[in-house]
Design a protein that fits this description.
Pfam families: Uma2 (PF05685). By secondary structure, this protein is an alpha+beta fold. It is built from two helices and eight strands, in the order βαβββββββα. The strands form two sheets. It has a four-stranded mixed beta sheet, with helices on one face. Strands 5-6-7-8 form a four-stranded antiparallel beta sheet, with no helix packed on it. The mean pLDDT is 89.
Length: 125
C-alpha cells in the first residue's frame, strides 16, 4: 500500500492509516511526500514484521520485488533482479520515439547500401 502525503494529511497518514494497515496485515505501507513538507527524505516505508510495522531502510518493496527511489518529485521503480528501471509513460514515449528514429536511420542506410550494390552490379555487367 502506498500513498502520496502532505503536511495536511500527515497525522492521518502517520497515525490512523498506518495503524489500520498494520492491523489489516498489509505487508508494506509507503508514504511519499514529493514536496518534502514533513518527510525530509520524501519517501518512507514500513514493513510488517511480527505484526508490527518496522521502518524500511533498504529501499526495497518486497511485496512487488522492486527497488524504490525518489527522483525529483517522482518515484523511480527498479527491478531488483536486473536493476532495470520501469519507465513511466513519458519515458516510454521518449524511448519509443528514439527507437523509431534509430529504425528510420537503419532503414535509410540499408536502402542506400542496396542501391549502391545494384549500381555496382549493373556496372559490372
Amino acid at each position: 500500500m502506498n500513498g502520496v502525503t502532505s503536511k495536511g494529511t500527515q497525522n492521518q497518514d502517520q497515525e490512523h492509516k498506518k495503524t489500520l494497515y498494520e492491523q489489516l496485515g498489509v505487508l508494506e505501507y509507503w508514504l511519499f511526500d514529493p514536496k518534502g513538507e514533513w518527510i525530509v527524505e520524501k519517501l518512507r516505508g514500513y514493513r510488517l514484521q511480527n505484526d508490527i510495522y518496522q521502518l524500511i531502510t533498504d529501499g526495497q518493496c518486497q511485496a512487488l520485488g522492486l527497488g524504490i527511489s525518489v527522483e525529483g518529485q517522482l518515484l523511480g521503480l527498479y527491478r531488483t533482479d536486473t536493476g532495470e528501471k520501469l519507465l513511466i509513460p513519458t519515458e516510454l514515449a521518449e524511448q519509443l520515439q528514439y527507437e523509431r528514429q534509430r529504425a528510420d536511420i537503419q532503414q535509410e542506410r540499408a536502402e542506400k547500401l542496396a542501391e549502391y550494390l545494384r549500381r555496382r552490379e549493373a556496372a559490372c555487367r
